[in-house]
Amino acid sequence: MCLQQINAGNAVGNRVALYSRALFQKLLFHLGEFVQQWPKSIVLVGLVLLTVCSFGLKDAIIETDLVQLWVERGGRLDEEMNFLSNAKSDYRKRAKRSEVRQPVVAQTNQTAPFTKSEGNAVELPTENTFGGGFQVVIQTPEVPGENILTREGLQRHVTILEQISKYSVEMFGEEWHLSDICFKPPPPASSKDLLAQFMEDIMSQITSLRLDHAHRLLLGGLQAARS
Fold it and tell me: Could you state a single Gene Ontology molecular function term (predicted)?
């Protein structure tokens, strides 16, 4: 009625609100007609959806771990992060089976499965060549919505990675660096021109460890900055 009066020029009002209300009233009217025609089917479908949602909500998991939210499940970084725990789990299973089958050999320590250092060091299996945790570098902008691929942001990223690459620990009476357990690919063989020097500088920043996502961000930012 109000919309008719406005269209006739007898009243003034908000046409958008009236058209929206008329549209929703029409949709709800048709929905009510449909429910009235098929009441049993609507109730059955509603019960099925309620049952499915009940079982789904029971198995729902709220993830709060920042690493799990950023790392792709089933990807290369996820496999590298879980490698240490999987190796230790497999080793414990094999050690438990060997103790059951050969208790005498385990007591005489003829096949010592651990490598021990002086003092109360952590025991690690000899098959595990990594021994330690994992490192994940996630760089986010200080201001939400700010572009992180800037000269200052990339320089800060390089500084952080340089500090990480120089990190060292002392274990088993020796000082260990990342270069002792990482593989750094050599630069491609090419002529000594400007492009070759640029590629060599980029390749020198690559370390095949659990920092691969961080270096991908660095290389992508350098390419964006150059272009």
Answer: hedgehog receptor activity
pLDDT at 132 over 70: no
Q: For residue 110, is pLDDT > 70?
A: no
Beta-carbon neighbour count of residue 161 at 10 Å?
Answer: 18
Report CA-CA distances (Å) from 214 to 40, 164, 219: 57, 12, 9
d(CA 215, CA 154): 11
Q: What is the mean pLDDT of the chain?
A: 69
pTM of structure: 0.29
Q: What is the amino acid identity at position 217?
A: L
Domain ranges of the chain: 1-56, 65-100, 137-226
Average pLDDT over residues 6-33: 83
Q: What long-range pairs does 206-209 form, CB within 8 A, spacing at least 24?
A: 207/165, 207/178, 207/182, 207/183, 208/182, 208/183, 208/184, 209/135, 209/178, 209/181, 209/182
140 neighbors 217 (Cβ within 8 angstroms): no
Structure tokens at 52: 């499915």
d(CA 91, CA 84): 11
Q: How far is the C-alpha of 61 from the C-alpha of 53, rounded, in Å?
A: 14
- Is the predicted pLDDT of residue 73 greater than 70, yes or no? yes
Strands 168-171 and 174-177: antiparallel
Q: In this predicted model, which residue has the larger pLDDT, 183 or 160?
A: 160
